[in-house]
Every structure is written in structure tokens, then in C-alpha cells.
């Protein structure tokens, strides 16, 4: 309800800025998203004595990383219900605002649906048996979504009902709650939104809204302009305060409000301690990259448009480190202070999580900062993310056929999971976690002889083989000094034979063991773990390569083997490639992440001049076999 409300607030503030690029309906993207949320809210009040305040519970926090299609709780989540005015007032506000917006754009049927449901929800919340305190889930670790004030929520619902129905009784009801000025803007605090909306009809309310903004302006940091203290989710509140200031500047022209609004826009885009744009965008060199979000963690896709929760107070952050471990070394660490920290790290749910509320507050902030006179043009030309276009200094292939391979599963712990070699080759493993043990697992490891265990001269590994499409596999680069099995690694999502790259700077512990900084000086094994009970999987490992970037500080590592540059069927002489196979074959050039750069069908005896691309490249031929590898400057 919070997200929908402020998406619609952004639309009302500046509808000309929102275009249709991703929407599959006739609606602009923002309204298409809001419409989805409104229709969800239409379902939360199915009968007079049932209002759903939350779907799911603490069990969601116990699930491993997985994509939505592998969600084992799908269809099994509880719907927690209560006649809770805290939730019902805010839901009525969102639906009433939705009714108003959709009426303006000519969607009368939708408008009628939304206002009818808003009225029924709000009227039920007014009955004597409604709760007088907030309902919420109490977990052993913390309370989930506990909003302990209902006056602001109910007043917001009433004023939006008045604005949509023009029934003055709702205005009277909204004023009756006597909402005072607040000192915060966030998902539990709607004082400013209430008083700003009532201010058009009540002089006392507009004074309270002004007093709240005076509080924010008076607290502005002299350097960055931040209007509220550091906390968990700082940026959400700062964007909200900045947007409120932008709305107020439009109304009364107070330049102090304009300064706060624009300083929060600047802060969002990088005018802060760390120089980061907390809005992820490939248009910006200083963008954050590593959002705490399962899908982005598993797919390695760039989180285009994601807004981080932002800097946190050090006390809160340090208390939570027991759950996510020690952040990796970063140049931004020099800019942490005794009061505030930020880590662009996808394990850090305090600073790097993105939530729908933070998105909507940032959109509201930016809508108010955008051109209001001209319609924005639809633009889908988002630049490709270039972080991994790194110049490679050397590639070393590990002789894995000479290493020992071992299978393991939870059988030793009383489990029923299966790990076995496939009949075709010992490099191929069948894994099937089954219910039985408390912690399900099946996997295998490749052990490295002592002479190959020091990887300090390298920056990561590339794994070639087969990871079945959609399979969620955790790869651990195991330090010898870790004795509790909480190794450093990363979960990857299979995509057939696409090579998988793990940079050492991106791997981390799971958090159940002792926190340890990663060191690649002693790596006795590499583990491949599979936990999903949704379906079994097969993993095949063809080769593992160590990679080193050109700017790597250590130059001590030596190649273990060299790579041939021709055989009886093909030959490469500088840029000329000749195919001498018996049949026509398709050849592709891929980058180090497996992305296709070039493709061509060659006939027997045909020669071609290979095109030039930056960095490390792989040439594949018939059946996807690796034909050759090179670094472009060596061609």
C-alpha cells in the first residue's frame, strides 16, 4: 500500500515525465506498476471479518537463494489476518488515490472498483471490534513490520476518500484524528502527507506540515544536506523528506525547501561520502553494482534502476554483521566514518538491499525534479554494463584431470540426498537433494595438490562445462583456514554450457560460521553444492582456468600449461583463421563471460579474418568445443 500510494503521488506530481517502455498494457510504465499493486490490494479484504495484513512469515527468511520458479513455499504461505486500522487506513488511502488517478485518465470502471473497495475497508476499520493497536508478526529475532501508530494512517485514508468522493464527512473524519507534525518520513510515518493534503482545506494543518519541514531543514548536514540521522534505511527517509520539500517549494516558493530537495537529488546521484550513485544505472560511472537481491545475486545481471537503502549508522550495521559476515575490501572503505558506513556488497542487507518502498520514494523525488512543461520521450536505450570488460593479463588452465574428485551428501547426517557419477564420464555428477536431514545438501569437490593451492597471483576463476539451465549451484573457493565449512563462494544459475566466472572480490561466506576475510594463498579445494529439492540436476566440469587482470598487484604466478594455437582441423595465423574440417561448422567468438561477440558458418577449407574485440576472447566451434583462446592485444 505504501509503494502504490507514493507511485501515484509521483504520477500526480509530474505525469509528463512517465513514458511507456516496458509496460505490456496501454498504460505508462509507472501506472502499469501501480495498477498491479492496486489489483493486489483489491484482494486483501475478501470478507467482512478478514483483512490480510501480510502474506508469508519468518519461514521466508530461512529459504536458500533461489529464483521464483524454484520457490518451495509457493502456494504454501500463510495469510495473516486482522481487523487492523493501521493497515486498513493506508490501504484505503492507496485505493482511493488510485480511484482518483484512474478517473482522470478515463478508466471509470477501474476507478469505481477502487473507491468501492476503499470505502468498504475504511468503514470496517471504524467498527468497535477493530484493533486499537497494530497487528504484526512477532518473530524470535525481531518484529516484522510493526507500525505502532494508527492515527496518521487512518487520517490519510480519510483525506484521500474526501478528495475522491467530495464527501465532506471524510474531511471531518480526517481532521478529527488531530495528526501532529512529525519528525520522520517513512513507511510508518505519514504525518507530513496527511497535513499537506489537509492544508488545502485547513490552515492549522498546513502550519503543521511547514513545521515538519522546518525540522528537516534545521537538521540538514552542512556538507551533504541530509535532513535526518543515519539509520537502517537512511536513504528511504531522506528521499521522502526531499520529495516533501520539492512539493512544498512548488506550493509556496520557499527556497530553503528547494535547496533540501535538490541536495537529496544530488546525494542520490553521488554527492556523498562515498561518491556512489545509490541509484544503479549503466549511464553513470559511479553507480552501485551489487544489490542485495536474490535474482541479481544468482543471475549476475546489472540491477538497472535499483535504489539501495543507502548508508547506515555504524552501530546498527555492526550489530547485523553477525548475519552477513565481513564486507570485502573496497576502495570505498576509506570513506567510512565513525558514524556511518556503506558497502556496495550483495550480502549486506542493511545498506545494499532494495525494497519497493525505497523505489517509490526515489521516483517521487525525481519526478518533482524533472521537467514539468514537456512530455518525456520514451527511451529504452540503456547502455550495457561494462564492469566485467576487464583487460586480462594471463589465463592459466588447471590440470583438473590430475586432481582428486570426491562426492558428498547429507547421508552421513541421516539424510537421503543422492550424489553420484554419471556413467559417461567422471567429470559429470548427478545431484538430487531429498527431504530427510535438517540441512539438505549434495555436491562434489575437486582437491588441489599443494603446488596449485596458492592463487594469490590471480583474480578469479572461469569454469567451463555444463550447468543445467535454471539450476542454482553454489561454488565455494575453500580456504584451508576455514574449519566450520562456511567457505567463501557464490551462487550461480545454470545456463547450459555458458562459462561461469567467479571473481575473488565478489565471493563471500554464507554467514553461519566464523567471519573471515578471504585470502587466496591456500586453497586446497573447490566445492560445488546443490540444495534444491524442486528437481535434481547434472553438473559437468570440462575445465577450470585462473584469470589475472592487467592491474593485478602480484606478478609472481606462473602459467601451469600453455594453450595450443592450432591442430589438424584448424589453424590460426594472427587474425587469419582456416577451417579444414570435413563438414561446414559454426564458429563463435565469446568474451570471458560467454557473451557472443561474433558468429560465422565456415565451409571446409574456408579462411576468414577474425574481427577485433577488446580483452580476453574464446573461439568455439562444432558442438561448442573451445577451439582457441587469446587476449586481443596478443593477436
Determine and state the CATH class of the domain at 1-178. Answer: Mainly Alpha
Low-confidence stretches: 554-568
- Strand elements, count: 24
Give the fraction of residues assigned to helices: 25-40%
Per CATH, which architecture of the domain at 1-178? Alpha/alpha barrel
Largest pleated sheet: 6 strands, antiparallel
DSSP strand content: 15-25%
Shape: elongated
How widely separated are the two ends?
58 Å
Class based on secondary structure composition and strand pairing: alpha+beta
CATH fold name of the domain at 1-178: Glycosyltransferase
Number of helices: 13
- Mean pLDDT comes to 88
Which radius of gyration do the C-alpha atoms yield? Answer: 28 Å
Helices, strands, pairings?
Blueprint: H1 2-13, H2 29-41, E1 52-55, E2 79-81, H3 85-104, H4 108-125, E3 137-138, E4 143-144, H5 151-165, H6 168-176, H7 191-198, H8 203-218, H9 234-252, H10 255-269, H11 294-299, E5 312-313, H12 314-324, E6 340-341, H13 356-369, E7 392-397, E8 404-409, E9 418-421, E10 428-432, E11 442-447, E12 460-467, E13 472-478, E14 488-493, E15 500-503, E16 525-530, E17 537-549, E18 570-573, E19 576-579, E20 585-591, E21 596-602, E22 607-609, E23 616-620, E24 626-631
